[in-house]
Amino acid sequence: MSAERSHESYGQHGVTWVDRFGVWLSQRAIRKCLPQRDDLVAVELGCGYRATQLLALGDRLKRGVGVDFSIAPELKQLAKFEFHEGPIEDTLPKLERGTFDAVLLISVLEHLREPLAAIESAHALLRPGGVLLINVPTWRGKFFLELSAFRLGLSPKTEMDDHKMYYDKRDLWPLLVRAGFKPSALRLRYHKFGLNLFAAAQKGA
After folding, report:
1. Helices 169-178 & 115-125, crossing angle to 10 degrees?
2. pLDDT on residue 6
3. I need a surface site. Which of 5, 51, 69, 150 has the fewest CB within 10 A?
């Protein structure tokens, strides 16, 4: 299940304006799909060096948990947040199952060798009614993302070199169902001009 990016977290050496725009678009999609409460317990697997998405949800969270290879030291002092450094698969056993209202896998699944195992683990972490939120690049996005990284230098080349998979609805939908999510509880839509796919999967009772 491991994400192999030389054991570095996303954003550890800064991000480009293109990436910041993409993060903002994901942020909007995440907020729309979260349960409508302000006492959520959420975990982001692969949160990045500065945990940008997780921290942006601070007003909606009772507790936030972030997992990545490396976390900015100043974040570890923040109230109501806790961070785990290391590979996702090493941290998952430390997280209590059935306790999270939301699990975020934002621009992470494409880096994993065993995406189904990650989705199954996310399903186990959720409490009934909780939601798994996933953002992945599409096959259409592959061309533009690689052009941005390899030719134009507008995105980190190491990120694109580490991509193991691209996803359309027909690729992601069966993984979610095999992991235990019911088809009636799945919402998948293309966004970021079709370059990404966003999925919200709710765990049943």
Report:
1. 50
2. 52
3. 150
- Phi, psi at residue 45, to the nearest 5°? -90, 115
Q: Is residue 1 part of a domain?
A: no
124-142 per-position pLDDT tens digit: 999 999 999 999 999 999 9
Q: 113 to each of 89, 149, 160, 164, how far by Cα in Å? A: 12, 21, 15, 7
Domain annotation covers residue 2: no
**Residue 3: inside a domain:** no
Q: Which amino acid is it at 109?
A: L
Is 98 contained in some domain?
Answer: yes
Quick: pLDDT tens for 79-107: 999 999 999 888 988 999 999 999 999 99
CA angle 35, 40, 42 (to 5 degrees): 100
Residues 6+ apart with CB under 8 A from 193: none
Which helix (H) or strand (E) segment is 120 a member of?
Answer: helix 115-125
Q: For residues 120 and 160, what is the distance between their CA atoms, to the nearest angstrom?
A: 25
Q: Is the dihedral of CA 183, 190, 61, 37 positive or negative?
A: negative
pTM for the model stands at: 0.88
- CA distance linking residue 154 with residue 19, whole number of Å: 8
Q: Give how many domains the chain has, as a whole number.
A: 1
Strand partners, 66: 44, 83
